[in-house]
Design brief:
The chain has about 210 residues and is an alpha/beta fold. The protein has 7 helices and 13 strands. A hairpin with a 2-residue loop joins β12 and β13. It starts with a strand and ends with a strand.
Length: about 210
Amino acid sequence: MKRLYFLGGENVAKRNSREINAAAFCDAGCAPRVMVFPWARASFDRTYVRRKRLFEYFRSLGASTVDFANFSDTLGEITKKVECSDLIYLLGGLVSVLVERLKKKSVDRLLHKFNGVVVGRSAGALALGRKCVITKNRRAPISVMSNGIGLVDFSVKAHYKPSKDEVLKRLSQEEKIYAIPERSALVYDNGSLSFMGDVYLFQNGEKTRAG
């Protein structure tokens, strides 16, 4: 049964969302085989500088193996890795880059069929939704919503801060949005939602506390 963790953001060096990650790893079997997709950054090859840090972090959480998907891998190679995994982890970066690469390699289809645990952090969380909510920042000149891979029928805003409330209220006129701060998470389990930390729902121009 698929279980999705939408993580609003984390400082991996400080491991300040360890409790959330530990819960996801336990849901995947406490000693899960983990596959990481570091495809949301411009550089995603074997020299990816955070691999060693992530490997050590995930092993400390109980992962029996930690593998990384390379964009140069064939669909057959990626499919085999996914089928042998208990937990899939999508990292942060540029969500437009991540979604484009997931679709180009047909990984979006693999994730729709995958029945284990999927964790999306930051851009990875956005990509899992129906729409990717990107509010104006130094990288994005305007606030927009673009297509995600649609594992759920709602959208999320990662790295949420109250200063974005008016923008999110406007965007929520056309899309239900869960706003997730860093060190908080929304957990989706076969249609049921639960929350770790503070999560807010923006719908029809209104904001309410979801968890």
